[in-house]
């Protein structure tokens, strides 16, 4: 009887340790995805400023896999990593990044396996006033800790 009690207690502690390890793994996974997402928006905010540099753009693209794709059905469909990079450079050289975007507010996030869906808004300065942009939805997929695909649904 004493042996059964010892085995039962050992199994109980073992089960608790496994459950705790799984919870820690989920938190670690979610935290790493969240970190990459926050870095992406932080670096984009920097690029959107009038004095941004090519290095600032390069910092964003360091977050992407080599086979990264950007999908925006409303604005032309599928873009390769190179297409998107060239678009950033073109916008920067044409003065498209003028500092009017002053923040990017993530309002909601849903985490999945190697994916996050977000609802976000651009916060802009217009005519000296702070204005919230429309809510926008985006899906981020990750591979090996880097952003593999972004799909915009706005």
TrEMBL record:
Pfam families named in the record: DUF4440
Keyword Transferase attributed: no
Secretion signal span: 1-21
Source organism (scientific name): Pontimicrobium aquaticum
Keyword Signal: yes
SUPFAM superfamilies with a match to the protein in the record: NTF2-like
Domain of life: Bacteria
Protein's name according to its UniProt entry: Nuclear transport factor 2 family protein
Keywords carried by this UniProt record: Signal
Record-annotated DUF4440 domain positions: 55-136
